Amino acid sequence: MCGIIGYIGKERCQDVLINGLKSLEYRGYDSAGIAYVTQGKLFITKEQGKINNLENLVKKTKSSLGIGHTRWATHGIPNKINSHPHKQGKITIVHNGIIENYDTLKKDLLQLGYEFTSETDTEVAAALLDKLYKETNNIEKAIVLFQKEIKGAYAIGLIVDDDYEHLYALKKASPLIIGLGDNENYIASDVPAIIQYTSKYVTLNDGEFAKISKNDIVYYRSDAKEIKKKVNIFDNDEASCGKNGYPHFMLKEIYEEPETFKNTVYPYIENGSTSLLEKMPDFSKYDKIIITGCGSAMHAGLVGKSLIEECANMPVLVEIASEFRYKKLFIDDKTLVIAISQSGETADTLAAVNIAKEKGADTLGIINRKDSSIARATKYVLYTKAGMEIAVATTKAYLAQVSILSLIALNIAMKNKQIMDSEIQEIFENMKKLPVQIDALLSNQNESIIKNIAHKLYNHDHIFFIGRNIDYALCMEGSLKLKEISYIHSDAYPAGELKHGTISLIEKDTPVIAVVTDEKIADKTISNIKEVKSRGASVTLLTNDLLDKDYDCTDYKIIVPNVHKLLEPIIAIIPLQLLAYYVAILRGCDIDQPKNLAKSVTVE
Ligand code: F6R
Question: How far, in Å, from the CA of 599 to the mean position of ligand 1?
Answer without folding.
Answer: 7
